[in-house]
Write a structure and sequence with these properties.
single chain; elongated; alpha+beta; about 30% helix; about 170 residues; eight-stranded mixed β-sheet
């Protein structure tokens, strides 16, 4: 009788959990793309002259274009793309480094903002001529060491050969 009572109690608890789960699943509305308003710039830190991608949402109004503006790149129109609004723009190469607000203006009047950091790091035109290490760049210490090493090997080989031939006499 005890096993039967425990079995019934287990089934009662599982049944109650099933009813609670069914209630939660049927009353909760699923989250969809565009349920809020946001704008994001990828990457959010770029070298002046680089291209950035913009993705945004206008709170369920993502089937219409929206406008993004920033002093970093001017004005860009975002277009609907798989439940979001997307676009891309190039930051001008002469843009001063700094943090620039990026503002989204939706057709339904809602707005959002994020920050874009523009970097202006000097980039070398090409790397230094290092070659194979110490041998790079003409007649430096590396070249002298290489030539000196070859001379030492030649002298040792010559002395070794002379001793061999000298012992035969």
């Amino acid at each position: 009788m005890r096993g039967l009572l425990s079995h019934r109690a287990l089934w009662a608890v599982l049944g109650l959990l099933g009813l609670v789960a069914a209630f939660v699943l049927t009353t909760a509305s699923p989250a969809r793309a565009g349920e809020n308003v946001f704008v994001e710039v990828t990457p959010n830190s770029v070298q002046a002259g680089s291209r950035v991608s913009i993705r945004a949402s206008c709170d369920g109004n993502n089937d219409r274009q929206a406008q993004v503006t920033s002093d970093a790149f001017g004005r860009v129109m975002l277009r609907p793309d798989n439940g979001f609004l997307t676009g891309a723009v190039t930051v001008p190469g002469n843009k001063a480094p700094g943090d620039y607000p990026v503002n989204l203006d939706c057709s339904n009047g809602k707005t959002a903002s994020t920050m874009l950091t523009v970097l202006n790091m000097a980039q070398p035109s090409k790397g230094p001529a290092t070659g194979g290490g110490g041998t790079a760049g003409g007649r430096g210490a590396g070249s002298l060491l290489l030539v000196g090493g070859l001379v030492v090997v030649a002298v040792v080989a010559g002395v070794g050969a002379r001793r061999k031939t000298g012992s035969r006499f």
